[in-house]
Write a structure and sequence with these properties.
Number of domains: 1
Order of helices and strands: HHHH
Largest sheet: none
Distance between the termini: 34 Å
Helix content: over 70%
Oligomer: single chain
Shape: flat
Number of helices: 4
Number of strands: 0
Structural class: mainly alpha
Radius of gyration: 16 Å
Length: about 90
Amino acid sequence: MRALGALLLLVAGPVLTAAFLQPQASRLLLPILAYAWIIVGMYFIGMPFLMRNWTSWIVAKPPALEAGHVCRDRLRRAAAGGGGVVLLTREAAS
């Protein structure tokens, strides 16, 4: 768990360096993503049980009428959509 947190911290450096002299549209997206990785990485290094609880919450199969099911489904969709947006903006910048 801590190794993934350290990896998130290490990956953020090259991303910030790559975004330094980019056009304005992608210049804001990459640092925000990198700083989010840094914050999550620090939490995973300091409190590795949070990652275990978080991943078990995301992959759990709740009953159909549970209120958390809607939130979990939206979180999965947002993560998938965020990945698509990053890929599209990266293609547009090229």
